[in-house]
Amino acid sequence: MLSDSPTGALVPTTQARRRRPRGAAWIRAWWPSVWPPTLAFVVAILAWQFLPGPMGLPVYILPTPSAIWATAVDHGPEFVSAIVLTSVTSFAGFAISAVLGVLGALVMAGWKPLERTLYPYAIILSTVPIIAIAPLVVIWFGTGTLSILVITFIVGFFPIVANTLVGLQSASSTSVDLFRVYHASKLQVMLKLRFPTSLPFIMAALKVTATLAVIGTIVGEYVAGTGGGNGGLGYIVIVASNRLETAYVFAAAIAAALLGILFFALASLLSMRVLGSWHESAMKAEQ
User: Fold this and answer.
1) Is residue 3 exposed (0-12), middle (13-18) or buried (19+ Cβ within 10 Å)?
2) Which end of the chain is more exposed for a tag (fewer CB within 10 A), N or C?
3) Contact 105, 98 (CB under 8 A)
4) What is this structure's pTM?
């Protein structure tokens, strides 16, 4: 059974696709790919917990997982507040960069002189390390949340613009000619052909940018974070490292890593929802 995809191609419907395994069958299907990394993780945690003592490593050099957990619990309210602040700022910067990045790419793709004028500068700016731009952002916008948000936006904006432009230009010339034969306007070609064709590229850019957003926020908090106990994870890393509270530094770093994984998982889920009924990459991921 076939149905029309957003790009006009005939693809199998959801009912005709291979059914995903359920229950015990799902466990049997996934277990061979799950147990090796799980076992490696358990072995690494056990070695991390029990080897530093016999090796004579002091806790300020390599704190054990139990020490890291105890430190996170001791700083409970402050630590949770930092996680929430970093999460909100990362998501806000990510969302703004995604919306403006896609809109900017659509405008440039629809007006070639603008694309030829601005796209080279977008590529040049994307190659500048964010750590070099961050101090300038602080000078222009001051310390605090606004500067952190701007830094997070800059990190994600250019990858989304670049990927979206590539996707918008990936529509086949045959499909474009077919739209022109039926006297479709440029806006119709853009919205009904080029934009659906670019969705896999946009979703890939969002998954990459989701993790970069957390990195950008941490960098912003390094150079523009607020004090008084109201800083995010990046601010905690600075303060704890100055106090040689290595366990607290590890706790903040682990929380940031888990936050990046969560953002990537949410972006992957969005990709599956958007592409799942017609694009091959999402259909394979669901099987």
Assistant:
1) middle
2) N
3) no
4) 0.76
In whole angstroms, what is the distance from residue 14 CA to residue 24 CA? 22
Kindly report, residue by residue over 154-189, the tens digit of the pLDDT.
988 988 988 888 888 887 778 777 888 877 778 787
User: Who contacts 40 (Cβ-Cβ below 8 Å, separation ≥6)?
Assistant: none
Q: The tokens of 25 are what? A: 């069958």
Across 117-144, b (16+ Cβ under 10 Å) vs e yields eebeebeeeeeeebeebbeebbeebeee
- pLDDT over 70 at 241, yes or no: yes
CA–CA dist 20, 29 (Å, integer): 10
Q: Write the DSSP string, 261-274.
A: HHHHHHHHHHHHHH
Q: What is the 3-state secondary structure (H, E, C) of 58-104?
A: CCCCCCCHHHHHHHHHHCHHHHHHHHHHHHHHHHHHHHHHHHHHHHH
Nearest alpha-carbon partner for 229 in 88, 76, 93: 76
CA-to-CA dists, residue 53 to 42, 47, 241, angstroms: 18, 11, 22
DSSP secondary structure letters along 127-179: TS-HHHHHHHHHHHH-SSHHHHHHHHHHHHHHHHHHHHHHHHT-S-HHHHHHH
**d(C-alpha 245, C-alpha 237), whole Å:** 9
- Integer-rounded Cα Rg, in Å, for the chain is 23
